Amino acid sequence: MNIAEQVDLVLDARRAKLPAVRENRERLDALDGALAVLDEGLAGLGRHPRAPAELRAVVAGADLQSCRQQVHGALQEMARVEARFSRPTVNLGVSGQARVGKSTLLQALSGLGEDAIPTGTGNPVTAVRSRILSAPRRLARLRMHTWASFRDEVLKPYHDDLALGAVPATLDEFRDHGYPAPGPEDENTRSVMLKRLRGMRESLGSYARHLNGAEIEVSDFSELRAWIAYPKRDATGQLDNRYLAVREATIECPFPHPIARSIGLIDLPGLGEIAASAEAHHVQGLRDDVDFVVLVKRANEGMAFWTRQDGMARKLIDEARKPISNTSDFLGILSNEGGVAAETLDEMLDSIRRDANAGLEHSPIKLFRCQGRDPENVGTQLLEPALAHLTERLPAMDEEVLEHARLLARAAADDVGSRLQALEAAMTASLPEVGGTAEKLRDLTTKLRHSIARDLLPILDRHRTSARAEADDPVLTGAIRDAHARIKSWADDALGTGESAWMDRALGEFAVHKASGSFAMNELNRIRVHIGEVYCGLDGHLAAQTGALFDEVGDVLVRRCGRLLQGLSGREALERLATQLVAGDETCANLQRATRDLSGLKVSYRSHFHPVVRARLDILDHQYWDPETQRMEPTIRVPGIGDADARYLLSELRLLAIKASASVRDGLLREAILMEKILHAAVEQFEDSFIRSGTSEKEFDRFARSWRDELFPGEFDVATTSRLDVRQVKTAFAGARSAIDNLKVKTPNE
């Protein structure tokens, strides 16, 4: 397996972890949303005119913003991991001071020329952080700053380092801002920075119109230099500082090295060339977009071998690599050689090995050596060993980054959970009950339970009497007899088709099949289906009886539950009550189960009655077991296929249809009392579970506490408004707890 294939495997392993990362990010998002809802609810509660001083003090000290900041930190880290694992490439960041051949090296790696990666012999040339990606076409995308991002990412670091106060709030304010000129007493760095800042303001006209956040595509790379390189003065001495408007450039092109198909290069402006705080912000981007940094060094005459700027660069890169534990995993140093005196080169290499690795003797930074102007040499001496290093170490680095994000998420869940628990306890303690409220609520709850029990008794007694009386239900028996009468009429009408039409069809089937057996069998099946369908018409009567039971019980509950079920009746009232029993502050699972079981009762002919009478339709099977012959015999034997045979078959089918229906009718009449037994059993089970189960009394108390003001309207007017606000906040606490619990559970993909 070659290096390119190994890189692809590393990228595949990253993508496999994305579902778990995304789910964790969504869970952190959910917690942040829950905290926002809780914060809003607490603020409203603290402003309530009836809120006691103790409660206002609790709300004032809640400080949910710090909880949200902790969650935001974990969320930002998880989003960073998601971005890292979503990248389609392994990215190498290339940086270094001016005049070390960084741009020439990038040209050798990417195959680009001066137009896209300009070089120079003196001052720094590269001005914009650029991504260079391997792709079949040549195209550059330039993402522009907005005024806000330019202000925060470009101007603010200068203001901070130079102690110039607040950054101008608008573009016009920046244009008119009076920056001090460098003075003779200013040290060199301050003078240079002031000069640059004044230059940005003075050249504003060359780039202000581009501070729009747009993306510009450039296919002609001869136009690219003006956007990404430090400018030269034109004939009039004016500067075209368009590069200041560019936030980031992405350049796509085919790379010359076959093993580079899945890599990206990040061209970083030379370290030490901009304001220190801006530099820190810039290198921070390495955490999001770079897997490995190559710091380019060159043994130029007159240059120190390991400078203060190099040390600062290593420090910043060390900060950016975290939580990756080993500097040597994330950072490599490249000695860009060729055209350098051997003695000078050896001195630089000794200096790097000694000074760059101070404190890293146990795991020294990798040192690569190549000739940056030679693409083939760059491929074998830098690209291949760097990718080999990454295929070995990148999985470990990825795991460290992911585990760090998980630790932050777990810490946020634990810390925020503890703080919310203390906050909720403090809030509850600051809400003393209004005098007598608890006792009054308990008395009203007891009366509610007693009243429902008394109201259910006559319903239960009536259904018990009907179920045990063994008396026929005149409506149901009438519907059964009517069904049989309709089937008889249908049979007399030649099975619903008329005798002439039936005879034509029968003789046609006889002629086609040269036999009568298959037609007779089909007709028997049709008779059996028709009888079943007619008797299924009893479902309307059964549903009416069930609905009457729902109305009886539902009316009791609507009448006794104050405003909670107002405007509802029957099954709708039962279903709403089942929902409310688990939707309040406290869950009443057993009361909800009893109510849900009753409201879900459905009695139908096919499920309850047809199984009882199904055997009575066996005479319509096309065969029967003859004990004399000890074999299956046809139900109807038709000797031939003529007119007389067809009439004989019709006569036999009519008799069987009427006989089967009469048998079903008689069976149903004997089972007519079953409906009352079902209704009695259902209402008795409901009443028993709802009123007398082991948890009934306790759950009635929970029910009343959850829906106090709806169940007993007007009884607690003094505290009504405050109570509703407290419930909203309690619900928000519950939502936050649920989000925290989710964070503590591993995702299915972990």
Describe what is shown at a glance.
With 750 residues, this protein is of the alpha/beta class. Strand 10 and strand 11 form a beta hairpin.
Describe the structure in your own words.
There is one protein chain. Helix content is 61%, strand content 8%. The strands form 2 sheets. A 9-stranded mixed β-sheet has the order 4-3-5-2-6-1-7-8-9, with helices on both faces. It starts with a helix and ends in a 7-residue tail after the last helix. By secondary structure, the protein is an alpha/beta fold. Helix 3 (64-86) runs antiparallel to helix 14 (375-429), helix 5 (147-162) crosses helix 9 and helix 18 (517-536) packs parallel to helix 23.
Topology:
Layout: H1 3-47, H2 53-60, H3 64-86, E1 90-95, H4 102-110, E2 130-134, E3 139-144, H5 147-162, H6 171-176, H7 188-202, E4 215-218, H8 225-228, E5 246-253, E6 263-267, H9 276-284, H10 286-289, E7 292-297, H11 308-321, H12 327-330, E8 331-336, H13 342-356, E9 366-370, H14 375-429, H15 437-469, H16 474-492, H17 499-513, H18 517-536, H19 539-560, H20 570-583, H21 589-599, H22 605-613, E10 623-626, E11 631-634, H23 643-670, H24 674-692, H25 696-706, H26 708-711, H27 720-743
Parallel strand pairs: 1-6, 1-7, 2-5, 7-8, 8-9
Antiparallel strand pairs: 2-6, 3-4, 3-5, 10-11
Helix pairs in contact: 1-2, 1-3, 1-14, 1-27, 3-14, 4-14, 5-9, 9-11, 14-27, 15-19, 15-24, 15-25, 16-18, 16-23, 17-23, 18-23, 19-20, 20-21, 21-24
